[in-house]
Amino acid sequence: MITIQKMNQTHVPAVAALEAVCFSDPWSERSVASELSNPLSLWLVAMDGDTLAGYIGSQSVMGESDMMNVAVNPDYRKQGVGTKLIAALVEALAQTGNHCLTLEVRASNSPAICLYEKLGFACVGRRPNYYRNPKEDALIMRKEWNG
To answer: pTM of the predicted model, to two decimals?
Structure first.
């Protein structure tokens, strides 16, 4: 059974390892660990017992949040883990007085875009050449709620 919880130091190595599996320009273990001491950050993990099924991270300033990273272990994809992580993050952010969540997604990442749209995100802009490895535009997506 998948449980969602706040990331802590014991999760950092697995989160950094999943970063390396999922992204062409992954965060280092040190960068992930630094989020634990950042008062602007909220990172959640999806755990299946002792196995990391996925994670999500955000930073918030003045009621607005930015999703930094989200990843699901390939063995857990298509099982609702991403949906659970995003829903849990939105709920946690709303409880702390935030009123919106913004993210960037590769313009070619149709599965992620469909998931975000299903969860109430709308495309609000485009960042040319935002990604590297390979170079690609990002779509800016945003979800708002009443705080």
So the answer is: 0.94
